Amino acid sequence: MLKKSQSLKGKRNFSCVLKSSRPAYFQVLKIWSCPSPSLKTQLKTQFGIMVSKKVSGKAVVRNRLKRQLKAVLHQALKKEGRNLNAKKVVLSFYQTPDLEKSFEIINKDIEQWLKKLS
């Protein structure tokens, strides 16, 4: 799981990221990222995760997708061993993935995003 210091919280932070950057679209994820302007958070990249009711009306499914995305991010960041130059990142599902294969699909999207950043 991600550390508390790595999670983006608050409506103001989310809206700042969403307004100041353009999204990158992948198979099921839409990802916004912008440099962190705050001196306090310059050391760590912060992630915010959104799953709309349009993706699934059931909270159980939305929470499952959030947990899977957090696990994939944790693995990818641990594997890469880097800090992504202190960014604020918002990840959102814009399509409902097949729940049987959702972990693999999310993993593929995150790997593509990290390659795009390199």
Automatic annotation (TrEMBL):
<keyword id="KW-0255">Endonuclease</keyword>
<dbReference type="GO" id="GO:0000049">
    <property type="term" value="F:tRNA binding"/>
</dbReference>
<dbReference type="GO" id="GO:0030677">
    <property type="term" value="C:ribonuclease P complex"/>
</dbReference>
<dbReference type="InterPro" id="IPR000100">
    <property type="entry name" value="RNase_P"/>
</dbReference>
<keyword id="KW-0540">Nuclease</keyword>
<dbReference type="GO" id="GO:0001682">
    <property type="term" value="P:tRNA 5'-leader removal"/>
</dbReference>
<dbReference type="GO" id="GO:0004526">
    <property type="term" value="F:ribonuclease P activity"/>
</dbReference>
<dbReference type="InterPro" id="IPR020568">
    <property type="entry name" value="Ribosomal_Su5_D2-typ_SF"/>
</dbReference>
<comment type="subunit">
    <text>Consists of a catalytic RNA component (M1 or rnpB) and a protein subunit.</text>
</comment>
<dbReference type="InterPro" id="IPR020539">
    <property type="entry name" value="RNase_P_CS"/>
</dbReference>
<keyword id="KW-0819">tRNA processing</keyword>
<comment type="similarity">
    <text>Belongs to the RnpA family.</text>
</comment>
<dbReference type="InterPro" id="IPR014721">
    <property type="entry name" value="Ribsml_uS5_D2-typ_fold_subgr"/>
</dbReference>
<keyword id="KW-0378">Hydrolase</keyword>
<dbReference type="GO" id="GO:0042781">
    <property type="term" value="F:3'-tRNA processing endoribonuclease activity"/>
</dbReference>
<protein>
    <recommendedName>
        <fullName>Ribonuclease P protein component</fullName>
        <ecNumber>3.1.26.5</ecNumber>
    </recommendedName>
</protein>
<keyword id="KW-0694">RNA-binding</keyword>
<dbReference type="Pfam" id="PF00825">
    <property type="entry name" value="Ribonuclease_P"/>
</dbReference>
<comment type="function">
    <text>RNaseP catalyzes the removal of the 5'-leader sequence from pre-tRNA to produce the mature 5'-terminus. It can also cleave other RNA substrates such as 4.5S RNA. The protein component plays an auxiliary but essential role in vivo by binding to the 5'-leader sequence and broadening the substrate specificity of the ribozyme.</text>
</comment>
